[in-house]
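TODO from last week: model NmrA family NAD(P)-binding protein.
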Amino acid sequence: MTTEQGRQYLVFGATGAQGGAVARTLAERGHPVRGFARRDTGSVPPGVSLVTGDLADPAAVREAFTGVTHAAVTLPLVYDAQTVAGYARNIADAARQAGVQLLVFNTNTCIPDEATPYPAYETRRATETILRDSGVPLIVLRPPVYLENLFNPGVGGALANQNVLAYPLPADRRVAWLSHGDLAAAMVAALDRPDLVGRSVQFGGGEVVTGPELAEIFSGVLGRRISYLPLEVDAFQEGLAFALGGPAATGVAGIYRWVGQEAGRDLFDLDPATLPKALNVGPRPIAEWVAAQPWQQFAQENQTEPS
């Protein structure tokens, strides 16, 4: 079913952090939203109908696109080139057959101009090409790195218990940190901007800061001195593997390996005016995001032993 305006939205990754934020934002604005995910994890946003299936299954993807006019695509943390290309072709073919009016693709990270040895960039670059070549009206959004990456037991534990903000970026790297809420607002805005079809928009949040400057913001909000610690990418990858598995952790770590090199030092140093100018979205201040997170849950005194 579609609304009186004739729109039906499809959101890939609707049970995940990024896709879930997009689906939630659309549903809260009263739009009919169908989510697509590999399985029902119980985290479907209210008002979103979920279709489960595998992106590698062309029939499942075609079924998900039935009656869809607008789609938001965020891929899972999979970085095998052949597998991801298959995902992209299935989405492109199904969207074209369904006559989709507009598709917005979130690359999950900025894409360097030059080719890199890291699949986290190159699989998303290849997906862009496949989707664009399909002829489906396409807008590509290339965000940098998410503030939500800081809210996890590893980073949050060091912050709460050692007053250290540890992250796998050199201290001097300038980063336009973005929240998932800002990403969702950008994707929803893009779904209503057919004038941007054919464009790739590389954007970040409203503030561009180095690691120590980010720690200063945390210090001001939390009322105690926070120090920035550039985490070794190998250590970051090892910790991430426990949560995501080895292949996904290796893929994600590649993002930071490139940015840690001289060739990638400016990748996340983005004009803070881009998002408001391109999509009329005002990014959330970093301090406001920090203040909204329950960091105390990572404090040792609030942690209990597993039963």
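Done. The radius of gyration is 19 Å.
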